[in-house]
Amino acid sequence: MIEADALSKSYRRNRAVTQLSLRVEAGQICALLGPNGAGKTTTMRMLVGLTEPDAGSVRIAGSPVRLGAAVLGRVGALIDGPALVPHLSGIANLRLLWAASRRAWPPPALDEAVELAGLGRAIDRKVKGYSAGMKQRLMLAHAVMRSPDVFVLDEPATGLDPAEVRALRQYLAARSAAGAAVLISSHQLAEVQLLASHIVVVVGGRLVMAGPLDDLLADGDGSLEDVYLALTEGSEHAAF
Ligand SMILES: Nc1ncnc2c1ncn2[C@@H]1O[C@H](COP(=O)(O)OP(=O)(O)OP(=O)(O)O)[C@@H](O)[C@H]1O
């Protein structure tokens, strides 16, 4: 469903991503892992047309991706978050963001999205009174309310409490079981180990490992943290 081929992106002379290819098939939950500055967000932005690659290509469900491409209507993306309007309520913000799709309100999975966001009656309160976690949950609702079958989520669990993290994990597991392709970035390796079927590790903008989680864990003592730290050891500062 998600196919990225040889993506490269530089910011001035800083090579953020170099020749990166990855695949996420229907039914897979793929975790994109790497140290700070490894190029995860840049990669995800290229996958959904927010950043144009210098080289390489992206296809989703077989269609080339560029900003405004129709296929992006199938994608639930959480990257940097949409700009929220502080003086509008949570639900009014969702309505405003949905208006960009030029489809009739409400979106197909609005109820599910609002429930996942767990904002309760706060959905009708102004966003300027929201905590960081509440804003994150509203942005999550924005990503899922269109009932996407492709997910590109950059650190979606940031600011969520344990119950919300579990609800998100269960939601994504159910969606992937129903045939969705999910790509998620995270630094929470214990959570990733519970959620992901596949792992992609990037360091300094380059792919260092990709494959099924079970294969990755088979050689060690079963800890994703140990495997990940061995793969990325000494690289933390190389990315800066
Ligand atoms: N808009 C930008 N302008 C200039 N440099 C950028 C920009 N966005 C990212 N970079 C640089 O590109 C590299 C990759 O950054 P990116 O945000 O993709 O990494 P990341 O893996 O998502 O990091 P983190 O785990 O901290 O979120 C870094 O060196 C970063 O400083």
UniProtKB/TrEMBL annotation:
ABC transporter domain sequence ranges: 2-229
Gene3D superfamilies recorded: P-loop containing nucleotide triphosphate hydrolases (3.40.50.300)
Residues making up the signal peptide according to the UniProt record: none
Keywords: ATP-binding, Nucleotide-binding, Transport
PROSITE patterns tied to this protein: ABC_TRANSPORTER_2
Listed GO MF terms: ATP binding; ATP hydrolysis activity
Source domain of life: Bacteria
InterPro entries: AAA+_ATPase, ABC_transporter-like_ATP-bd, P-loop_NTPase
Family: Belongs to the ABC transporter superfamily.
PANTHER family according to UniProt: ABC TRANSPORTER, ATP-BINDING PROTEIN
Protein name per UniProt: ATP-binding cassette domain-containing protein
Organism of origin: Cryptosporangium phraense
Lineage summary: Bacteria, Bacillati, Actinomycetota, Actinomycetes, Cryptosporangiales
